[in-house]
Design goal:
The protein is α+β, with helices and mostly antiparallel strands and 643 residues long. 50% of the residues lie in helices and 17% in strands. Strands 6, 7, 8, 9, 10, 11, 12 and 13 form an eight-stranded mixed beta sheet that branches. A hairpin with a 5-residue loop joins strand 16 and strand 17.
Length: 643
Amino acid sequence: MSLPSTAGASRQGAGLGAGMDQVSSWSRDIRFASGMVLLAFATTHFLNHASGIAGLEVMEAVQNWRYGFWHSWPGTVALYAALIVHPLFALLRVAQRRTFKMPAREMLQIGLGLMIPLFLVDHIVGTRVMGTFFNLDESYHAVLRRLWPNLAFSQSILLLLVWTHGIIGLHFSLRSRESYQRWRDPFMLAAILLPILALIGFAVAAREAGHMELPPETYSDAAVAMFNQNVTWAKTAFYGLVGCFVGFVAIREIKVRTTRHITVRFVGHGVRKLTPGLTVLEMFRRFGIPHAALCGGRARCATCRVLVLDGGDKLPPPGPNEARLLRRIAAPDRVRLACQIRPKDDLQVQILLASRLGAATRGTEPEATAGKRGLTVMVADLRAFSALSERQLPQELIGLLNRFFDEMAQAIAAHGGRIDAFYGDGFMAVFGLEGTPARAAQAAISAAGDIVRAVEALNREFGAALPLPLRIGIGIHTGQAIVGSVESESLGRREITVGETVMIASQLESATRRVLSDLVVSEETIRVTGRGYRGTTPLKISIKGREKPLTAYGFASAPELAERHGDDQEPAPAIETGSTGLQEPAAAPDVRVAEVTIERAPLSASVSQPDEAAPAPQPPAKRGRRSRAGKPAASEDTKKSPV
């Protein structure tokens, strides 16, 4: 008889947990919406303050516009409803916590929220309430005379408290969204400038109001008594509510510590016995287990997701927000968000996105700037480097590589790019971390031109000491890529860029050997630049994982803008190569041909015959050299197949 009773209690607990998850889900949305209403009111109010820089008259004119909305019935209802709902649901969220080990920014936001009513209640009662019941003048010139200078400091503190609390909440609510990365910097700049301008406008207008010759304001005893009574009631109600929540949390902790315990096994981090009620994310924080939580446990990101290995059938089903997010990332069946599950029975979970913990009391979060962005990626590699390394002394080879990478780094940095990786005789660079996509694509192509010219300069400098002339292949592609940083104790912190765009740029670099071009740029990159380039040849490059070949353009030499030389003609038509799925460039009038070294298959023959070790540079396949008469001259090596 005891087993059915226990099972019924378990089902009842699961149902209660599901109900709590549902409440948590829609209460988060209500809290966010009400917070946005309050932040919108604060923004318009502080903008009104900032207009005081232009004078009190301008300040009064802007106030009339602001009053037109916030003193209307819709504005009044929205404002006061948000003013009641937001702190209530914020306290509800705090009360739902089962551990108060949290990031410092969450502690700061909670602390600011508790301090705001100390200053805000006096301001609301002294303006809106007293103006409604006693027809007290609410215009700026009257209110500023009451506040300046005795209450100027407390009002400035109130402004900073409200603004900081709202911006912290908005920033950490939106930072997990990809679109936020594009306008995060302007947002942060505005968030810093607005309170500064508001304080300056407040001080300027208050000084002007203080010099106005107006009769002093008188207050009746009833008005003073009502003001004090309303302030006392409002503060007592708020902090009494806070006290009730504190008492509730204390009683709950006493109760759960005297009830049964559950066993939770964290794969790789041991087994813990604890009282039920905590979310798995709160368990991570309590026991100092490295974890990721970008949104702080609000089901806005999926970085805290875990794989439930055992006990998942006893967990309540995902709430609306959790289910929507899991569908978005196409999560498998047993993957859940650690911030949304409160196990009532034994559980075994595995962290999927673990992070190194900086401190036992602080959850490690992924890089805030990590996300998907539109970038231009360049991959470059020296050709025939293996053959070159076999004929050079180690000291000479390393010295040459140092000089090569130094030249490449200067060319990349000069155009605002960043080298993400060096590998052997090649490197990868990204453009577009700052600035527009068009400027990034233009910078990448310009940097490629500098690199080609730098390699030519190295050939002139080291030509006598090199058995083979240096040649470089460069691939450039523009598209979405994931940027962020990785960190380990052995390697430290590194910025990385990954994604399909990097893979395509790498394959375009590999294609430079087959199409005999120093530089291959995707059509997408050319389109983004909005410019035309001379001396280009259209190509079709087969990309692994794609059914259709990618359209690209080969450059026979350093890129040159068509506008600079009056060359407005279309690129030369392409010729299909057939078996490789590529296209080789056809001869075209007015196309300047660069010398390209062809890697030949019998490298061993070159090694065995030192006199012929350095073959003369050959023109690209199927291209003719222009004669003085304007007709293409035949080339003996035009039909030799490259490796």
